[in-house]
Amino acid sequence: MPMEINLHEKRFVILGLQGSGKTTLAKYIAKQNPRHLVFDVIGEYQGFNRYLPREKQGQGLISEFEICANKLLLKNLHRFNMLIIDEANRIAPCKKPMPSTLLMLNDQHRHYGLSLGVIARRPSQLNTDLIDLAHYMFVFLLSGWHDVLYLNKIAQGLGDTVRTLKPYEFVVVTPTREYSIHKPISLS
């Protein structure tokens, strides 16, 4: 893990443009924790512990997430201690209430011994509670002005920094909202 970050019972967010390295980092994190479960909306985590929903968007996807989280994850805490949700903005978009189970996990994950990670392309598309309450943020290249402004409000200069990242570089933002640039990682 970059900087030897301990994600045990922590919340984390991975953000970045398509093809920037989000999935590679999420797979790296999952490999470090064999008791993970990935809610794999678009089918990129073959070979990992995953739930592959039939629905890909809308209320059907949200309902499948609720079922997965309640029946697969919470009833099997002896098997899982990390939940990673890819395409989380499809489940918890900005300016809409979060599904009840995700809201509960975001607030009480550590009482279940869980780490909670969410992945989205743009912070401006994701429910703000997931970002604001995250212990760690991993941010890849973003260039949209909404995203740059949003990130600059989180930490001075953060949005300007991620706009200039080289391919596959990312910024790690700590709980105190300090940040630093990290080189690309490899799964091998």
What does this structure look like?
- With 188 residues, the chain is α/β, with parallel strands linked by helices.
- The protein has a single domain (2-182), classed as 3-Layer(aba) Sandwich (Rossmann fold).
- It contains 6 helices and 8 strands; from the N terminus they run βαββαβαβαβααββ.
- It has helices at residues 22-32, 58-73, 100-108, 128-132, 145-154, 158-163; strands spanning 11-15, 36-39, 50-51, 82-85, 115-120, 136-139, 170-173, 179-182.
- It has an 8-stranded mixed beta sheet, with helices on both faces.
- 39% of the residues are buried.
Entry keywords:
single chain, 188 residues, alpha/beta, Rossmann fold, 8-stranded mixed beta sheet, 30% helix
Unreliable stretches:
none
Broad structural category: alpha/beta
* CATH level 1 name: Alpha Beta
- Helix count equals 6
Residue fraction in strands:
15-25%
Return the string of H and E elements: EHEEHEHEHEHHEE
User: What is the rounded distance between the termini?
Assistant: 13 Å
Radius of gyration, taken over Cα atoms and rounded to an integer in Å: 15 Å
**What global shape is seen?**
globular
Query: What is the CATH superfamily classification?
Result: P-loop containing nucleotide triphosphate hydrolases
- Sketch the major β-sheet: 8 strands, mixed
How many individual domains? 1
In which order are the strands of the major sheet placed? Answer: 3-2-4-5-1-6-7-8
Helix content, binned percent? 25-40%
CATH topology: Rossmann fold
Number of strands: 8
CATH-defined architecture: 3-Layer(aba) Sandwich
Mean pLDDT: 94
